[in-house]
Design goal:
heterodimer, A: 195 residues, alpha+beta, Alpha-Beta Plaits, two-stranded antiparallel ribbon, two-stranded antiparallel sheet, 7 helices, B: 295 residues, mainly alpha, 11 helices
Amino acid sequence: MARMKFLCDVERCIDCNGCVVACKEGNQVPVGINRRKVVTINAGQPGEKSISVSCMHCADAPCIAVCPVDAIYQREDGIVLVNKEVCIGCGYCFMACPFGAPQFPKGNVFGARGAMDKCTYCAGGPVETFSDQERRLYGQNRIAEGKVPLCAAMCATKALMAGDGDVIADIYRQRVFERGSGANAWGWNKAYDKK
Amino acid sequence: MRKNCVSFLGLVLGLAVIALAAVWSPVWGQVAGKVAARPSIADFQQLMAAVVTADWQGSGQFFIMMQRVFSPLFMGVLVLMLVLFAVHYLLVGSKSFAHDGEKVFYYSVLCRLVHALAAASFTVLVISGLLIIFGKVFHGGELVRTARFFHAPAAVVFVPVSLVLFLLWVRDMLPAAYDLDWLLVFGGYLSRKKITVPAGKFNPGQKSWFWLAVAGGLVMAYTGYCLFSFSGDLPALRLAAVIHNLLGVVLLVMFMIHLYMALFAIKGSLQSMLTGYKSAEEVAQMHSEYWRRIS
């Protein structure tokens, strides 16, 4: 079975945040919840690099390991999803995640956190596919339609790739081979006046 | 001399709580912001990973490892304690004292009221906490979520009440020389015979529960507040979760012992907490130093 993965090509990401907007808009994600974010280092300086980060749907997901109510599960194709009806909002998954993927809505009883929300790989949730409930709770189910997630589909430079892990690893390897790496990449010596 | 002891103890306690909080909020892991002169993609990926994942390999992996330990630990402790109580009750049994004889006034109305409030809120804390720990068994959802929603408000009640309780009883709960003698016979709790044991108004068992519940309760409240509000940085949050759970085990053990002693091992304890009076025979035997002082 093909395992679904994300890969953000750091060389191509231009920090346009198109992926962030596409995800928010397409899944109607509420204000305050950020399923996807772009992290930039050395902003404005030579050597500026950006990467688009969301839930990475880890093979050995730490969030699944620590959940006290077993609300998080992993599908056959590797996509990690949360069952919002079981989740109690304790936040352990956030503490276990290396990427800060789990997000929590506020405003419950005594100001407590609500059920966890995160990137679903545009694969909906444990409720009936294409149902109204799925759309409201989890957002779009593009995987069931045979489409890639919104973020990867939207990416202007095709920095963010999503799909079969083997396939996108191959694409990335091909890119690295053809363009060179780091500051040796084509065009950099012109852009930053390197000798 | 006494007053100095009390204020010194209070100062040490307060400082200990603050020191605990300060020392255990470290920033683990540093992020390198520089690249080599001719960086490769691997260098950039490492930089990104350092920024994105922060200290996950340090505190994150530690937290994940510890979290897997908590519910088996709680289960083991619960079963062990119940077995120990059953064995104790079969081998040693309970102690009862004459109810119709002379009575000694022990607990004022205020003490009883404050203790009742503390007991009620603490019970809610323990039960809701256990429901969260064993959330899998209850299949999460509405029940466990409701338990979690009650956990924090119960703490908001418990903390001030326990501080009042602390102030009411702290002078009687200070360690004394004869406490060592009590410990040597383990308060007579390991023998069926009724022997006279040296203890003040409160015996070392009660004293240890008092200090643990108040000080431990404050640490639980602080770490619990961090967990509830997600305040502080991520390594501190992870440490707070570990401390909260481990200290919870310790408090649970003492709480169970307290319940066993009060409800099963020493007959009439509950009565004395409701009426405020203990039987004179009990005071003379179980709190002989106090008996000597008041008679």
